[in-house]
Amino acid sequence: MRGLADKVVIVTGAASGIGKATATRLGAEGAAVIGVDVAGEPGVDVTDEDAIRETFDRAVAEHGRVDGVVHAAGMAGGGPVHMLDAETWDQVLRVNLTGTFLVVKHAVRVMLEQEPVDDERGSIVTLASIEGLEGTAGGSVYNASKGGVVLLTKNVAIDYGGRGIRANAICPGFIDTPMTAGVFGAPGMERTTEEIIREHKLRRYGRPEEIAAVAAFLVSTDASFLTGQAIAVAGGYTAGRDHHVTELLGLN
Ligand code: NAI
Predict the structure, then answer these.
(1) How many angstroms separate the alpha carbon of residue 8 from the centre of ligand 1?
(2) 249 Cα: distance to centroid of ligand 1 (angstroms)
(3) Structural domain for 132, as ranges
């Protein structure tokens, strides 16, 4: 992918799943990758503004600039609202939405200070979800947090496009990572799991590498005219309903 070999990219959530695959892919494309995670050494918590500020400042001190950010740190959580305690509500919003705000804020701060390369100061990639585009049973605070990520990302694209900063949200379908393994491996979830897989028109979960490929593209110069989008990378999950009609048509 064009331009990646010259870019410095910060990846959050880099210890697992999508963030880990993205750091690996960007590294393979020749980018200088700074991976951070609350589970890493040193632990960087995306809800801690001082830690995020320091991460960006250190990247600039060591590499001269930050061309791209892929913000993949996030958490699952939810339940129907009458069963959801305010503490969980606050925690999921804090990690998924406030964390995104803080990472984006400091990415923009640093990018505004640097000279453009190929007319571009930087590319910001957030991780929303198909659950930020449409509701899910029991989704509540997760839906709310990811819907917020989608619109915050579009807002950033509008506010800073004139300064050469692009911002896009990736909205993955269900991806085979430790986050989903915990939910869909649980007893009693067999039927639900089968239906969820069916709603991905490609009839399978996605792989972290398939999200990483899109994240790397969005950071790269190949995506130079792409901003303000929420891109479903979801095997067709949001294309429309199936209702088992393909089965009747012999197309299953
Ligand atoms: P994961 O659980 O495999 O990895 C998430 C990483 O984020 C972990 O390494 C964790 O330590 C880190 N993290 C969590 N809270 C943090 C914090 N406060 N500060 C710093 N790091 C923190 O999850 P996965 O599946 O790779 O998800 C990545 C992103 O993609 C998340 O935002 C998730 O909501 C989103 N997503 C995932 C989908 C899936 O099916 N796996 C579907 C749609 C969106």
Answers:
(1) 21
(2) 38
(3) 8-180+206-240
